[in-house]
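Let's do one together. I've listed all components of the complex below, 825 residues spread over two lines.
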Amino acid sequence: MEHLGLSLALFGAALAAALAGIGSAIGIGVAGGAAAGVMTEDPNKFGSCLILQALPGTQGIYGLLIAFFVLNKLGLLGGAGAVALTWNQGLQILASCLPIAVVGWYSAIWQGKTSAASIQMISKKPEAMGKAIILPAMVETYAVLALLTSILMLMGVQVG
Amino acid sequence: MGVARLKKAELYYHKSVHEEIAAVLQNSGACQIISTQEENYAPPADVEALISKTDEKLSDIRYLTRTLTPHYVDPIPALDRMLGERPEATMSELEELAAATDLKAVCETTRSIEQETGNVRLQLSEARMNASLLSALDFFPYQLSIITEGTRTVAGLVGTLKAANVSGFKAALGDLSKFKDDSEIVIAPYDEKAQEVYAAVIYARSAESEIREVCAKQGLSIVEVPASLKGTPEDELEKVKSSLIELEAREADLAKKIADLAQECVPTVQKLSDYYNSLSARYNGTAKSDSTECTMLTKFWIPADKAESLRQAVEAIGTDVDLSYSDPAPEDEPPSLLNNGDTVRPFNILTELYSSPTYRGIDPTPLLAPFFWVFFGMCLGDAGYALVVFGTILYVFRKYRKIAPGVKDFIRLFLFCSVSTFIYGVISGSFFGNFIDSFLPPLIPLKNSLMLVDPMTNPMQVLGISLLLGVIHLMFGLLIAAYDKLRHGEFIDAIGNDISWFLLIVGLCLYGVGLGGMLPPHFVQVGGGMAGLGAVIIFLYAGKGEPNIFKKVINGFLALYGSTSYLGDILSYSRLLALGFGSAVIGMVINLLGGLAADIPYVGWLVAVVVIIGGHIFSIAINILGSFVHPLRLQYVEFFGKFYSGGGEPFTPLTLSQEYVNVRA
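Okay, and this is what the predicted structure of the assembly comes out as:
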């Protein structure tokens, strides 16, 4: 049982990177479908479509960021070797990863849907690009808040 | 600063000079024509004629653009084009070009090539179908004319049949009394796995109906053989193959022809497109004017500072003109033009992306600019990234001298913001993430000596700063709202709606900070007093005009409950910490990966350089997007929510079309 703490912490890092990544993949996929549809009509919209499609991609990056944060905290990056962790500390790190894992996952999907709708919007009204970017960004707020929560929780956990 | 003052112009002139007048108005680029007509008003006949003539040309140009552009290889790279590297032309040069170009002839040539290509493609697909049919029919030993024409007494048919049905099919035909010796069944050779086989039946015409009936019953689906095929399948296949080669050569030839034509004509077509679109806009502007038999009246809006130079230009045309200016009447709704100096102008686009202010409204651009500048800097927050952005933009400005003003302002916005990014990067100790700590240890003392905040080890400090900036931003918004209401004499609303909340929130902040011991203790009392006063005003104002005492109380409490939305607004600014943190940590991760890659034997340093450079470029791109979008959201949702709703019509003057060419007057 001596490595249970480390395993729990790694499980948390894996959840953060994986769930948020899955969410972003779905969100970008949904938006990409809409973008491809619009571009069959007007290939010149590639630039604006790409920006809107990229918006739900940040959750995956936030998840990755938290995963690296955890790995760094555990001393798994670089040659220093892993720090010793009680199972309780491991569980704390796992808990810290959950906000960005769960919120990142769901918010990326919904942000993708909003992006898809925004892409439809600029196909009719290219001049509304500003508004089209803001709508998906409203969804991302909650991923940013979850990222912040995860970061603050992780910084609070004492290890080593 | 703010929304530009406009003048309403009334220009009377003799009909004979309407083209010159319209050209002057268009070339000035400062006149938005006002439509003066009633419904069912028809513009003068000669203006109508000019419009329809231009429309005709434009329809040719649209056809050519649509057909030729896909075959055109632009010698100017798309990025250069966007940054203003385009052909230059004056309107008179374009006029000469238009006179020298026979658009109709180019259209004719294009149409004939297009038509011929269509024909060749049709023949090609027919020939390809025939070729595949003929190679399937190679089992058939006779001339195909037996099937396609037949003789006086004999005819034939070909079809496909399920392989399993072949023996049943043969037997059924053999049983038929009329199927005598002059009939024959030919089945294509097939292996056991085949699903379908080709079968041909040759028969006496007298037995045709019975045989067709049996074939249908046995599930033979008849294949139509084109009447043009008469010889044996082998011979015909030879012929089809040689015609295929010839057709493909013709297709390639036509493709080259149209590509050459595109290369030759598209630049001209693009120039003429701008020329005729400019003319069309000009004539349609004139068509909005009022006219009598000899006189015309054009009304337009013009920025007050351009009025005098336009007057000179107009009066140079002749004496048959009369131009008078007046200030907008109270019932007018003039369009709005943002008029900000060089420092604020790049931020105009942020306001315009939301919605232009009304003519008499507040221009929020100078108000949001400093906040956006600071917020962007905190979100990107890296001195190294700032240097990259700054350097790239300087290079672009140096290399491209003809960037269109709107594009240039947008780029300049990022130039400005890279300065705030640099400052925040220095005080938070971020240079390409933790590049200094990882790879340049001698510089660590310098970096540390410049650091004022440290989000990595003390994030609560930066969170506090973010929220404080949020409070300042929101309170500033409330004060603007109050000012706007006072300007219109709505004294009570200003106090009840805006000042009250200002007192409550600032009071609560002072109270809290005072309790925390960061300010002298009497701030606790001052803060408490302010908050209490604010709360009382909110409570009373919400119940105003409500006769029922219970409803008054309920409304009051509901209004106070609205303070939760302020809590949400303020917490929303925590994204400044989160995004700044995000870019710093992404940078750190990239350096870490680069450091790990450097351990690979022999090629490690190369991999490390690629990872670090590529990684940071990616990081800059993704973080600029985030650092643009999120501060913008703070302006639009939190800040504008307090005082601004836009709703104005942007000023859209009559200008020359500049889609492909930098057209000058």
